Amino acid sequence: MIALIGTALNIKYPIVGIVTTTPVNLFTRHNRVLVSPDINGTVFGYACCITSQVIPSMHTGYLVHSVSQLDILQDGDIVLVTPEGRINLMYQSGHADHTLFITNRCNSRCIMCPQPPSTDPPDWHDINQKVLSLLKAGSLKHIGITGGEPTVVLDQLSKALTYLQNHFPDTLISLLTNGRRFRNFDVVRQVVAAKNKKLLFCIPLYADNDIQHDGIVGVPGAFQDTIQGIYNLYRMGRRIEIRIVAMRQNFVRLAAISEFIYRNFPFVAHVAFMGMEYTGEAEKHLEDLWIDSREYSQQLNEAVWHLHRRSMNVSIYNIPFCLLEEPLWQFARDSISSWKKEYLDQCDTCLVKEKCGGVFRTSAVQSKTISPI
Description:
Layout lengths: L2 E3 L1 E3 L5 E6 L11 E4 L12 E3 L12 E3 L12 E4 L4 E6 L5 E5 L22 H11 L7 E5 L7 H14 L4 E5 L8 H8 L6 E6 L5 H8 L4 H14 L3 E7 L8 H11 L5 E5 L6 H4 L1 H4 L7 H12 L5 E4 L23 E2 L16 E2 L13
Parallel strand pairs: 3-4, 4-5, 5-6, 9-10, 10-11, 11-12, 12-13, 13-14, 14-15
Antiparallel strand pairs: 1-8, 2-6, 3-7, 7-8, 16-17
């Protein structure tokens, strides 16, 4: 997520609030974070104030000073301000999508995880609840729930899903999960109890066999857990998306994975073949994982058309048009989160830039074959 750094004064606990760049009346300040290059000492009543000024001390009120790039923060944004002076942009005003990071913990150790597991702050659940309470009902078309692995904090996940069903009943929800805990049918029952009408379970499958899948996930038995979890979700009538991240370890078997899905999971709502974000663990294992999308174009083409010709819903995520064969453009989606997405200098003259999903600015390496169309 986008983050700014400054120096905090009087802040002992995390603060969540809605950004305002102009002063508001006293009765609406408690949930507002005033952002201004010159606050003129006006801090009373605000949840917090953020400024580029240097303010050595202040007796009352909560403040983060000496912050550069204030123009990143816009009216209506929702921010998290920490006692260390870090300002995390939790939601960008006007965006129809929102990502809910529900935990940093995970029960897998994937070799290419872009966000390696870590412990959660003790108040992380309360922070998420506060952010959700500040979002306007009807303002979002899509909410993604991710981590870590959301099912590791099962009670928090269930509460979040219940809240979303009550306050955002018509919003599409994507739950990014490895699916392993759904091998337990009681866990499935607990998650579906909220009866979210538009909930999609997005589950990765990295191979068509346990040896390769478990090797990538880093946990013996993960393949069996995931397969059983998918079937249990299907038994409960849930909508499922299977995601295949292409890498050096599995690209030669993309067509085989496609056939495995068709034979074993013809009921899934969607299948997505994905380019990799080379950050976190993926950056550490770059030499083992890296493969240019051009190198597996033949395997990807075969895998996508194999499912499409069998009337399965299939897409390609995270790969720009110039790295795909033109017949595959119809399957490419603008899938990278706005704060992670960028276009390289050579993209400026591309004729299809407006339709292309760009690349990960967070990746440690980019394809050398990216070129304008």
